[in-house]
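Predict the 3D structure for this chain.
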Amino acid sequence: MPMQATEVSLPAFLEAARTRVETALERWLPAAERPPADLHQAMRYATLGNGKRLRPVLVYAAGRVLGAPLEALDIPACAVELVHAYSLVHDDLPAMDDDDLRRGMPSCHRRFGEALAILAGDALQSLAFQVLTQGDEALLPGRVRARMAALLAEAAGAHGMAGGQALDLAAVGQDITPAELENMHIHKTGALIRASVRLGALCAPQPDPERLAALDHYGKCIGLAFQIQDDILDATGNTASLGKEAGADRARAKPTYASLLGLDAARDEAAELVRNALRSLEVFDPRAEPLRALARYVVERHH
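Done. Predicted structure below.
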């Protein structure tokens, strides 16, 4: 797996990380034919589709900077992607964002029905914590797994992703300030991205506090930059390239960086966050090149 050499290109690193996490997810997800087959098929459909895998990629990139073994990184990489997959299933539901498309395919509730989609999301979230808490003690000690489980639970819960989604729902049709929008996005999208970086770092044998703090700041910056770019793409992209309905935020009167600040100011804000993220990586050697490339990718992507 070409994930150690500093000269590896970002596309090669992304492909290697995606292949690795998808192979690991296949091992953890229940077999499609195992009863209850409909539920297991919905779980696999929601998880193994054509995703960017940014969060597990960040787990691998952050962990490798600190010398963490790949076999240990597989554990939080799978867990964070399972939580992300569950969140997308629930976000797409009619009571939430009511999206018919996800990753260019019918959303889970369109393919399997609302009830099964809800159960699939619930089961994926539960599986994430099963992945974190079961396995070889020699590979990842129990105290580290417990710390990871607490970190992921906080990032996904009322003080993280779920809380941010609640703020997002409450803001529909409302006039909010840029500070309120930033707070919403730091929780809704940023918390899980930030946690991905921290989870990867925790796999290192003896993570240095100064370097952990630098990685945490990096994760915070790119988490918000990612959401700003999402807002820009929703306003400027098309359904075919995005794999989901373009212009959905505007149609639902949801406040975004593009609507509050304008496209140019939103792009400037995202670029400044990336510069801050890159500055935080100055304490690292060339093994941090994938993280640097990922920071730039966050605002240069077109889907």
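The CA atoms of residues 133 and 146 lie 7 Å apart.
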